[in-house]
Amino acid sequence: MSSNQLGDRVFCSINGRYGTLASLTSAPETRVFPLGENLSFEDGASIGIPYFTACRALILKAKAKKGERLLVHGASGGVGLAAVQMGRELGLHVVGTAGTDEGISLVKATGAHEVFNHRDPKYLKNLGTEKFDIILEMLANVNLDKDLTLMNPRGRTIVVGSRGPTQINPRNLMMSESSVTGVALGTSTEEEWAELAAHVVAGTESGWVKPPVHKVYSLEEASQAHHDIIHSKGAQGNLVVRVTE
Amino acid sequence: MSSNQLGDRVFCSINGRYGTLASLTSAPETRVFPLGENLSFEDGASIGIPYFTACRALILKAKAKKGERLLVHGASGGVGLAAVQMGRELGLHVVGTAGTDEGISLVKATGAHEVFNHRDPKYLKNLGTEKFDIILEMLANVNLDKDLTLMNPRGRTIVVGSRGPTQINPRNLMMSESSVTGVALGTSTEEEWAELAAHVVAGTESGWVKPPVHKVYSLEEASQAHHDIIHSKGAQGNLVVRVTE
């Protein structure tokens, strides 16, 4: 490391090639960033993937423009909440969805202008008649067909997560000339990593990057953490495993 | 009209608000273009929608770059053949598919580097292992799920036609960060019409715009023409109705 000194508090954004449950790790200098005094190491563990992914989706893929309407479809998880904070910072009108009362409260507290329960059978009606320029989709296999009907002309749905196949009607992309695009943080070029880092590190300094940590586990509880994230009945921010005291 | 004079041979690109079976029509000046002496009126009738749509799809939506690999999925119809000619003009490697021997011959004769029969159960294998940067999809309800597996990183599938819902696996968009975008010529702005016209009219002058006319019907045969296009067992270019002798 050159810009960082031995003993500096840092966070990093690296693909988990060897997993992240380690007390020591190595990372290229370009993926290591200063962790401000106002952020804990648990916060730091919640920045690398969620904020960089939200940034890649909103800025590099959707090319978000101030004043546009953003729907974060599944907003109470790590990437979703980061997207809500970043959407506000970019001057978007941010609408979120979550599946539990706790999730809805958290998405509201995180700054969404409006939040709806996507488990309410009437939630599409509740979303109103005004459509969206950008949709960040966390569970495409459940929501994608609906997303295609929720986009403004030239709307962009960015697929952040999907757990299987789904049925859609491609005709709904045609008259609106809207699009569906996948996002994968790991495909970033070095230039893109630098651009993402510039946005996120600036956010840690100005203060809008506030990672929502839901629960901290000890290393012994790591398998429970994995169980909880897969079987979650509704996300409420990041789950963090603390490796050393 | 100002740039065109009374009696000039012209073609036009207009949305068929009142249909196109008429001996007289009106069109805004910005949608009327000179028809070179080397082109017949039947040719002219086959330029407005197919070439402008192919141009909108390839240049404005897919942002085609020289040397990219293009798959025209369903290449033997009016838009498909226009896309093959335009793809060659843009310096793309053009692969087409068609469903009949006649269609395949026509797509080859029109300039595609390679042509495959999409009714051959092994055609995906025949396409080889090299993927595509751009796919122009004429029948998304049949092919879209396959298209998602045929794209290079940051590949773009442009949906030109679809006749119903279909199942896809959104995960295939994620690692490649590829996209699916709809196209609708009628949504073009005036600036875009001008840009499309510049490309297509230049093509009528330099000669690469050669509309493939499959059959010419009399006005009395118009209903047969509609029947034939809907029940076609495999397109072979444009069907034209001649309104006046």
TrEMBL record, chains A, B:
InterPro entries: ADH-like_C, ER, GroES-like_sf, NAD(P)-bd_dom_sf, Quin_OxRdtase/zeta-crystal_CS, Zinc-ADH_QOR/CCCR. Transmembrane segments: none annotated. Residues 2-241 form the Enoyl reductase (ER) domain. It holds the Pfam family ADH_zinc_N. It is found in: Cytoplasm. GO terms for cellular component: cytosol. Keywords: Acetylation, NADP, RNA-binding. The keyword Endoplasmic reticulum does not apply. GO terms for molecular function: mRNA 3'-UTR binding; NADPH binding; quinone reductase (NADPH) activity; zinc ion binding. It comes from the Eukaryota. Gene3D superfamilies: Medium-chain alcohol dehydrogenases, catalytic domain, NAD(P)-binding Rossmann-like Domain. Coiled coil: none annotated. SMART domains: PKS_ER (SM00829). Homotetramer. PANTHER family: QUINONE OXIDOREDUCTASE. This is Enoyl reductase (ER) domain-containing protein. It comes from Scylla paramamosain. The lineage of its organism: Eukaryota, Metazoa, Ecdysozoa, Arthropoda, Crustacea.
